[in-house]
């Protein structure tokens, strides 16, 4: 006798099953990756200067993402009158995590780079779950070959902190350094650094260097004064965009689960509208979302915010690509 209800297939509610990202298929053999979107975990937080814990970010975001996997054929947004990620049209695959070697930044970063390169080689959009913001360094490194073939990338950073430190006590690959390392790349055409506010880990000299090296820096208050459309107008049209999102770009009232919270941050729809505009204006070719540290938020709200933002970001990118 058939089990109750199974004659119509599994219901597969969000709290059932193994939590890959949005319950997408898992691909252990990266040489056989077949996907439009490839999710890669980067559980590395050795680059932190204060509160560690972002190594558990990928696991927390995946767990939270099951909330958005009811499996009824995509996500209908009544305001846009669009069904994002309709069933059968976008193939999301979870690659699992890059291998991390404890206390070894160079080796761990090399593992993350390998994962992003595998996603790009498969023609997939890499979406990397951090980890602290230093994981952006190997992500951008991985684009060297892709940019040689397809042209440069413009980086859009959502963050409370500029992350433009050159070197501090010999450290060049921590979570205060990634945007400086990115700006040094010949295939990075410029940076839009949005949400930067209050006391930062970067001194005035770093801000001066950032602007001299092609950065456009906006605080949350400046963003709100300009409005989304004017901010989008400052980003090159038709650019290949790499989007890096530090969860501390959001206000800690909605994202307390992070290592370096900073009051005065963004709310959800401000950033979703910006990302929707980016997907219309250019071609988003890579994403990382970093600094979710679930142990500082026992409600799970921060991880849910990260998962919800990523699901909606992927949906809008894929829709506007059509």
What does this structure look like?
The protein is built from 10 helices and 10 strands. 32% of the residues lie in helices and 17% in strands. The strands form 2 sheets. The protein has an 8-stranded parallel beta sheet, sandwiched between helices. The chain has a single domain (22-321), classed as Arginase, Chain A, CATH 3.40.800.10. By secondary structure, the protein is an alpha/beta fold. The protein has helices spanning 57-65, 105-121, 136-141, 144-150, 178-183, 204-212, 220-226, 228-233, 268-281, 301-321; strands at residues 37-42, 75-77, 82-84, 92-97, 125-130, 153-158, 188-194, 215-218, 240-246, 283-290. It starts with 36 loop residues before the first strand and ends with a helix. Strand 9, helix 9 and strand 10 (283-290) form a beta-alpha-beta unit.
Write the layout of secondary structure elements.
Elements: E1 37-42, H1 57-65, E2 75-77, E3 82-84, E4 92-97, H2 105-121, E5 125-130, H3 136-141, H4 144-150, E6 153-158, H5 178-183, E7 188-194, H6 204-212, E8 215-218, H7 220-226, H8 228-233, E9 240-246, H9 268-281, E10 283-290, H10 301-321
Précis, in short:
The chain is α/β, with parallel strands linked by helices and 322 residues long.
């Amino acid at each position: 006798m058939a089990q109750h209800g199974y004659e119509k297939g599994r219901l597969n509610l969000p709290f059932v099953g193994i939590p890959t990202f949005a319950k997408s298929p898992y691909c252990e053999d990266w040489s056989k990756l077949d996907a439009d979107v490839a999710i890669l975990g980067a559980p590395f937080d050795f680059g932190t200067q204060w509160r560690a814990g972002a190594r558990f970010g990928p696991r927390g975001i995946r767990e939270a993402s099951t909330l958005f996997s009811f499996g009824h054929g995509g996500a209908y947004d009544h305001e846009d009158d669009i069904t994002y990620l309709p069933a059968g049209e976008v193939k999301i695959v979870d690659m699992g995590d890059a291998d991390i070697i404890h206390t070894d930044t160079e080796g761990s970063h090399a593992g993350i780079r390998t994962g992003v390169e595998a996603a790009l080689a498969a023609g997939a959009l890499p979406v990397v779950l951090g980890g602290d913001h230093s994981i952006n360094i190997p992500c951008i490194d991985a684009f060297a070959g892709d940019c040689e073939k397809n042209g440069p990338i413009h980086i859009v950073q959502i963050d409370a902190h500029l992350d433009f430190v050159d070197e501090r006590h010999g450290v060049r690959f921590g979570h205060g350094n990634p945007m400086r390392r990115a700006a040094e790349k010949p295939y990075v055409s410029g940076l839009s650094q949005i949400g930067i506010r209050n006391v930062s880990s970067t001194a005035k000299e770093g801000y001066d260097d950032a602007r001299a090296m092609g950065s456009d820096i906006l605080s949350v208050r400046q963003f709100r004064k300009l409005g989304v459309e004017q901010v989008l107008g400052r980003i090159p049209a038709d650019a290949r965009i790499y989007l890096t999102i530090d969860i501390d770009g959001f206000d800690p009232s909605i994202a307390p689960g992070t290592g370096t919270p900073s009051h005065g941050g963004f709310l959800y729809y401000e950033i979703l509208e910006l990302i929707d505009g980016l997907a219309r204006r250019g071609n988003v070719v890579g994403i990382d979302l970093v600094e979710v540290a679930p142990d500082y938020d026992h409600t799970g709200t921060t991880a849910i915010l990260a998962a919800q933002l990523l699901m909606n970001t992927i949906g809008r990118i894929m829709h506007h690509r059509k």
